[in-house]
Design brief:
5 helices; 4-stranded antiparallel β-sheet; alpha+beta; Alpha-Beta Plaits; single chain; 136 residues
Length: 136
């Protein structure tokens, strides 16, 4: 037996842990943008958000919980709302929120709220590419 050959001890890190440590992060982080607006303005805002490379949106009907008296004091005509859930790139989110804030202040009966929540994962490369608006 040759005494000059040195053996390397086997790595004690499990194979699955090694692959997670070397895995690359997605180049474009995604966020969910929630926009709550009057139902009559939902289509306008959904179209407006497409300018920020929003590739997927879901619009849900909703109803506000404030009383009619409270709404009239605030100058809000009704409690019929829509919630628009959009998938947006993290780097576009701040610009979209700023533009939405400007629209909320300038459009008649166009008041609303908007906020983002980070997406922590997607299943599959093709789905991620679609949501991040990355051409194949």
């Amino acid at each position: 037996m040759n005494e000059n050959i040195k053996t390397q001890p086997a790595s004690r890190t499990p194979r699955s842990r090694q692959s997670k440590q070397t895995m690359e992060l997605a180049p474009n982080r995604l966020q969910l943008l929630f926009t709550v607006v009057n139902r009559k303005k939902a289509e306008f805002y959904a179209d407006f958000l497409q300018a920020f490379e929003v590739n997927m949106q879901l619009t849900l009907g909703a109803r506000g919980t404030a009383s009619a008296e409270t709404l009239s004091m605030l100058g809000i005509p009704d409690s019929e709302k829509s919630v628009i859930i959009s998938v947006i790139k993290e780097e576009k989110a701040a610009a979209a929120l700023s533009a939405l804030d400007e629209k909320f202040q300038t459009i008649k009966n166009g008041k609303g709220i908007a906020y983002t929540v980070p997406m922590t994962g997607t299943i599959g490369v093709a789905i991620y590419q679609f949501l991040a608006n990355i051409p194949r």
